[in-house]
Design a protein that fits this description.
The structure is a single chain. The chain is an alpha/beta fold. Helix 2 links the parallel strand 2 and strand 3. Helix 1 crosses helix 6 and helix 6 crosses helix 7. The C terminus is likely disordered.
């Protein structure tokens, strides 16, 4: 069976991308990264998603990214509560580049054909490493950097959600039978999403546009009644 490495954060997008890989008949091998992020709950969610989708392997990789640089990692910086058209304080320098680099090394060792990543260029918060041009350039690097690829074999970097909005991503996940209650998008940890950070706002708006209610909101309401 063909193999895919899935970069699994624990959020909606990476979960749907992995579900796409599963539906296309790949055996799934996952990497999740602990880089000192405040929303450690997403790592728990990644484990649950990997179990749900029956990953063959799932590794939690500890990496060091300078904590002072981002409000996602610096305890002294506040998580923003509004969406900006500029690159936000939640941007983590080099994050996707580092993650994909781990993914390509793992994929070559496994002799996998594909790396799946859940980035999209519509609701992407202005991050420079979530653009189509970025994916195209990284594919060029993969084609040049590996024994596998210079020997004539392919390793393809896939971003199947690249041109989808949040509501389209949600609908795609539901078509694939994904349980969104397993996912976590909030930039903070806790028993329930904060509902005000940019990630929560994008998630809630996505469910609203899809004509649905976020199951994490439903769970919260059930516990409080």
């Amino acid at each position: 069976m063909k193999r895919a490495v899935c970069l699994l954060s624990g959020g909606m997008d990476s979960a749907v991308a992995a579900a796409v890989a599963k539906a296309e008949g790949y055996s799934l091998y996952g990497l999740t990264f602990n880089y000192g992020q405040k929303n450690r709950r997403e790592i728990v969610s990644a484990r649950r998603i990997a179990t749900w989708l029956k990953f063959k392997e799932h590794w939690i990789i500890r990496v060091y990214l300078l904590p002072e640089s981002s409000s996602l990692t610096n305890p002294e910086k506040k998580i923003p509560t509004r969406i900006t058209k500029f690159i936000p304080s939640t941007y983590v320098p080099g994050r996707n580049t580092l993650f994909i680099s781990y993914g390509l090394a793992y994929a070559e060792a496994l002799n996998a054909e594909t790396i799946f990543i859940g980035i999209n260029s519509i609701d992407y918060s202005g991050y420079p490493d979530c653009r189509p041009k970025y994916i195209r350039q990284f594919q060029k690097l993969i084609n040049l950097a590996l024994k596998k690829t210079i020997s004539g074999k392919k390793l393809v970097l896939r971003a199947p959600l690249l041109h989808l909005s949040k509501d389209q991503i949600i609908k795609k996940g539901l078509e694939l039978g994904l349980d969104f209650s397993l996912t976590w998008s909030c930039y903070r940890s806790g028993e329930k999403p904060c509902g005000v950070c940019p990630a929560c706002q994008l998630r809630l708006e996505g469910f609203r546009k899809a004509g649905l209610v976020d199951p994490l909101v439903n769970q919260t309401e059930e516990r409080e009644t």
